[in-house]
Amino acid sequence: MAINKPAANSGYERIVLASAMASRLLLLFLIIFWRALLSPYDTSASLNPTCLIDPSSSPLAEQPALFPAIGSAIESSIVWDGVYFVRIAQCGYEYEKSYAFLPLLPLCISLLSRTVLSPLVPVIGHRAVLGLSGYVINNIAFVLAARYLFRLSLIILKDAEAAMRASILFCFNPASIFYSSLYTESLYSLFSFGGLYHLMSGRNSVSALWLALSGCARSNGVLNAGYICFLTMHWAYDALCLKKCVLRTLQVLITGAFHCLCIFGPFVVFQAYGYYNICSGRLPDELRPWCKARVPLLYNFVQSHYWGVGFLRYFQFKQLPNFLLASPILSLASFSIAHYAKSKPKLLLSVGFQAAAEDRNSAAMLYFPERASRSNIPQPAVAYSSRIQGGESRLLDRILLIFQ
Description:
By secondary structure, this protein is mostly helical. It has helices at residues 5-37, 68-76, 81-91, 104-114, 121-124, 126-157, 160-171, 176-180, 185-200, 204-217, 225-242, 246-278, 298-307, 320-343, 345-349, 357-367, 379-389, 396-399. The chain has one domain (12-51, 63-307). Helices cover 65% and strands 0% of the residues.
């Protein structure tokens, strides 16, 4: 009897979604269990002075909550970076060091707390609702990120079972706590995986939008422009050197540059926003040091001045326990890169411009689609992509097998 591949792939996707939700429930249980046994190391949850910009949003101006114990339990879980995200959602960017935290998560928290969860404000209190909004957003974003990782892995690996295993490992990864806490990892993963999935599916403009949103969540989202730069580089080379078409080359370069600007845009605009709030309209002797720089970059100054973060500054002897803690994942990543480099040295060292004979067919799917036959494409991946996108997978032919 013939196997229905799209149906089988849907079954794998349901397993991934179930695993993602199960991992969040398990993590929630572990958080509650350990917090009941141990006192929190960080005690910043109680830090919540009156808002400087909008005093009316301060908890002091609110009516007493109907169930203060529940609200207090939620507020006590707002620690570490979560204090800043909730504070920004509640009061805006009041302090210079607040600008180390990009606005996507605070904006989402503020929106959800003012709409869907607003009826809970009289029940558990405003700040508790802000914290709860962050938890809801991040856990939903994590489940969706796992789904997009599965779909992306299916296109790249061309093996539904392997894609499922990779996605389940993501659901139970060692840093899983950050994806369910008031951090930006979940939103960043969702828009990064989603952006790459759309890029691999031929939706370049949609991909640029998603990757730009990843840059609204975390500053390193701007590095996602590298994926578009990589494809643009090869398409331009193909148009100029192989097809001798200057007009097509200019079109590829302009489109790629525009998409990259879209990805860099949110971070640049946010820096301009910080400059306007902190530096604009002040006397020279009132300006902060970074305001006088030739390129006034607030983010780098805040990270260095308040947290001592900078290039290679983390490599200190006192951080040795943290490196030991990360050594299993670092070792796995290093061995994987070494294995790939040993198996496909020419493809790796030439950034795809040169390839061994056995790699040429796979590389052609990305760089020279007109030379590749559709019969070479693994049918499960094509059928699945067509099913979930309504047939919009023509450019998938160009990029399958690049990582094979």
